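Quick start: what a row looks like.
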Amino acid sequence: MSDKTHQSVSSLKGVGGETEKSLNDMGIVTLQDLVMTFPYRHEDFRLKNIAETPHNERITVEGRVESEPSVLFLGKNKSRLQIRLLVGPHLIKVVFFNQAYLKNKITSGQIITVTGKWDRGRQAISVSNYSPGPKTDNVDFEPMYSLKGTLQQKKFRKFMHQALEEVGNDLEECLPSNLREAYKLLPVQEALEGIHFPKSAEHVKQARRRFVYEELLLFQLKMQAIKKARKEQNKGLSIAYDVQKLKDLISALPYELTNAQKRVVNEICKDLKEPHRMNRLLQGDVGSGKTVVAALALYAVITAGYQGAMMAPTEILAEQHAASLHDWLSPLGIRMALLTGSTKTKARRILLEQLQNGEIDLLIGTHALIQPDVEFKKLGLVITDEQHRFGVEQRRVLRDKGMSPDVLFMTATPIPRTLAITAFGEMDVSIIDEMPAGRKEIETHWVKKELFDQIIKRMVIELQAGRQAYVICPLIEESDKLDVQNAVEVYEQLSSIFHQKYKVGLMHGRLHSTEKDEVMRAFSEGEVQVLVSTTVVEVGVNVPNATFMVIYDAERFGLAQLHQLRGRVGRGSEQSYCILLADPKSEEGKERMTSMTETNDGFKLAEKDLELRGAGDFFGRKQSGMPEFKMADLVHDYRALETARQDAEKFISSDEFWTSEETKYLRTYLEQSGAMDGDRID
């Protein structure tokens, strides 16, 4: 790379102190920084046929002025100037807002070129760009940049032109020639010209293709290098579990594992045998059978003489896991214990002694597991359920309690493949994408609010049959800002409807955790028949007798959250129902309701949610760990992401990558990024 690329932007003609500061504020310090600053879109100035242009689309036309301009003044500094323009055989209206001065510049019979929004019904264009005379320049596409300070598009393009002329030929090509040839990707200089000053729509498309792939490849190389470094650094335990004992437990289960469960168990067991630490994410939709997979993994570790630990985000969830694991593992002589914040001092002291002495094989609990005085004798596997609910530091503390134990994270939140590859790129990902046989699909109906009485009648049928119901509301108390049902009001309404016949419970985020647990326990044990709740009920709780759910103002929830909520019912053998009470105003809201009624597949819904909301909103931008890409879009560029991941895996595992001159740039990039040390740098 020549020194020119590192020259300051102040070396460009016209860049003074104030302009340099604005450029620096945009992260542009050198000429290379400038040419690698991409436009967020291109304005299309190609002449278009009026007859073929859809309503509300942007259009550029040239034509002859057929009337003198007429101006209407609309108040202080506001005006509307209108002319008639003959474009081919079409006589259309052309409207200029707040440009009254053009009255003296546009004359009847003159040829002009205008760009603006096309109103097909009124046969009119609202002008955003105007130039006298026919379209003479060759600029069909004009780049638009996100600028700061006093910078203007025209000036910025001028600087970009200068910078490209100065350093375009000196930029180092980062993609090896065999990849560029295989994927027919433009060389870097041609791609930069195509992004900043394209000759055609195809030129923009090919330039974008090149930079999307480059960006995703660099990111995936980093992820794969981190994964490799961590495996080499984290010399974990090679756990020689008893294969026959594990097979016997699988045979003794009251049902056969699905093919997806078998595949995932094999992936985990392979990791246990390896001499490096397992770092795996297990994804499975609500009810797909993750807990039994966790039980098998923990049992495998225990047969090799190690201890296991499982951490859940709430006490009630920890208790439910303990009950399930007890049913499967206690008959095999596995010694288990439950540790939560509610464990009494004396019982806790005895439990900790037994744990340290190796008298406990499996410890299940909440974040109480990560207290400093909790010490294991020989910890082999740590499983964290609903891993996104724990902070990175909390997960690390538990992981560090053993001599490099294997780590398995579980989540019931279906994450689209593109996001899993990106957000958890340094992890191995296992997916249970199949539901156990015999499980009935939850019937989901989208109902308008005026049919509330019929919904209550339908709920009563379920209650009379001895079943239970959830009613979910978005807010706790009344709000002037949002006209949405709130939990307190609904609780009072249902309590008066059911009188003493059915008991109604209320749960929301402002209750203390012990109060929440108490309400949930009363519902789990059937003391409460109808539970009115905010979304705090979203994760984990298993009440097989609950068969009916109503979600108020369902349009206020994202698809992923609606699906998680729906998963609280349908956990027993009886048919279950989910009613979406919603009057969505937006097209997106209607689309979400329709999607929910069409499928119970969480992964399909997650993909749809990603499509509707975008990657940043899917996790919540701040806590997501999602990288900000300049050019790539995870929704539309998923094929390129998959290809880049496969290529990065091949590179990192091949000897040639680490020695070839062709891949020198990529190696340097990895060294400078810190990925070679196993550091996660987003």
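That is the whole record. The CA atoms of residues 552 and 581 lie 5 Å apart. The first strand starts at residue 41 and ends at 44.
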